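Lecture 7 notes: from sequence to structure.
We start with the chain below.
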Amino acid sequence: MKNINKSMAVVVLLLLIPMILVGCGNNKANVQVQTPAKQTITDMMGNKVEIPVEVKRLGDSWQAHNEVVAMLGAGDRIVATIHTPQSRPWLFKVVPAMNNAVQTFDANGVKIEELIKTKPDLVFVSQGDKSAKTITEAGIPVVEFKTFTNYDELKELFKFTASMLGEDAKKRADLYASYLDSKIKMLTDVTSKIPEDKKPKVLHITSLSPLSVDGNNTIINSWIEVAGGINAAKETSGNMVKVNMEQVLKWNPDVIIIGNTVKDWDKVLTDPEWANISAIKTKKVYLNPDGAFYWDRYGAEEALQIQWAAKLLNPDQFPDLDIAKETKTFYKTFFSYDLTDDDVQLILKGLPPK
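Predicted structure tokens for the same chain:
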């Protein structure tokens, strides 16, 4: 009888051991779920940052970069943004997931309590963003990007962003780089052969009051040159350089392109102070297109800007370049969005969607 009882006890113990082990295993698994795998990266400004291996929730305070994230297929991961449907209507139209993001950044910096509520895995900021310190002190990883001034740096921005977003994003970054390279080659194969004295002088204006232009060492200078123009303000350096009318009269640009942030931009056509400038006399004053982001500034639609500008500055050199068709293709490829003919015309005119 004792032997039977001992045998039964052994059987019970053997049955309990796996259950005990499973219970311990479950506790270990729960700990792992609560503590996601981390990796240490070096951002574009040389900062060491610990971020999750799998980034699911993003904050993005850099205006131009929200578009990059969306084009990499991660627009639905943006939970905190600097934009609103009013500030960037095309972005919110072609990337509907942006409507779920909360505006936690603005011109004054970060609304830190609102940002914390969105529970981002990390926050993207542009070079020199002063809110980075506040965000870091709140325990949220911050990844800082260098502001690009040329197309190699733009492609590197895509590549680095994609490295944090997974394999699909990496493929999309490669696709964008290939597209951009092919368009630059197509244009420069032609524009590089135009004699310097035949290239139009282009002035890019970012503000009329105060009068501000974009000079050398900027992406604006880069797209003007790729498109076959000469930056009239090349003797200056940097973005939004304040100048006076005396300088503009001296430069005497053949073409004036005005950024989409400028209101009442066409008043230069009737202002007597501008009357003697070549671009005014020939009515070659244009408002820049505006889509998911400003085409002329630090966004991904720089790939469209160079084509629009080349057709504008040297139409005889690019008779087969259909910018409306190219815009449709771009949005379909990189946003999975079908623009209508009316949509395209509104974007090219720098107007919001209806």
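Points to note: DSSP finds 13 helices and 15 strands in the chain. Residues 1-33 have pLDDT under 50 and may be disordered.
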